[in-house]
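Handout, page 2. Input:
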Amino acid sequence: MRIVTYRELKDRSDIYLLWAKSFGFFCSSKWIDDWAPQDVRLMDSPIGFCAVEKGKLLGFVGVMHLPTRNKHGETETVGGIWAVATRPAQGRKGIGRKLLDAAENSLRQQGISLSLLTTSRAIVAYRWYAEVGYKEIEAVNRYPHFYKFPRRKPGARIRKGSSKLDRARVLKLLHQQLRNRCGFTYRDETQMRLLELRGVINPTYCHVGEDSYFLANEALGTLQISEILAPTQKAYRDMIKRAESMTREAVYSRFVYNDKAIAAFQRAGYKSDPDEFHVAMWKSLDGTMFTDLFDKSFVMPRLDFF
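Output:
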């Protein structure tokens, strides 16, 4: 078995089946090859490490270089581990560990101090990540979640968002709000386009105003808000009312990190829960602790999970 970077991989066709079996979604090598040159997180990274034997792809561990803002207001690049996958027949052979070691070593060689990943407590991999040194980012994993079944008048019209999302305005408002916080304070148009392409957000179920917005999609009659932003509690309440007018069943808002938004949801009668299975984790690569780089203002919006 050989370990090579994704950029060195000659036959990339197996990535399609590997991810379909591991994650339940389909992604061709062409999609990655078109995406990587545009995404700042992948431009200078190896994209991933691959285990290959007799021309067959046995496993993959993705590597990103993630720009964040540290507690001193400086740009801090941290590592991002993503799309960790092994063929089902190759499980429990140490392939994943060898690939993860290769990914982490590549980050160390770049002078990167922390490795981050997102996973779920509901899957076997979570326990494995903990065993190899990853710890939960507790502040992020305690962000509350809100839900409500709004009362609707019979025959009430369902409102829709725009068919085209004003990405530039969304990014401007996001960066304004996060200017005094550390963590994932950067996002660009490429990432926004990818979120739409993957169906994480759907412009039909989003709304962008002069100073406020929410980004959402819809499933089984529920409007699922991944991000909501406004300057005041009143503006948040207006956004929430707008969201309620766009659903037949329920509104569900995930990973709400802003105190004004939390207060607005509570005032609007939403039920809340402070925890979920999907979590963010970190690991030191050189002895640097998470608190050495980030303070209590650390933020990781749901849309920046990778």
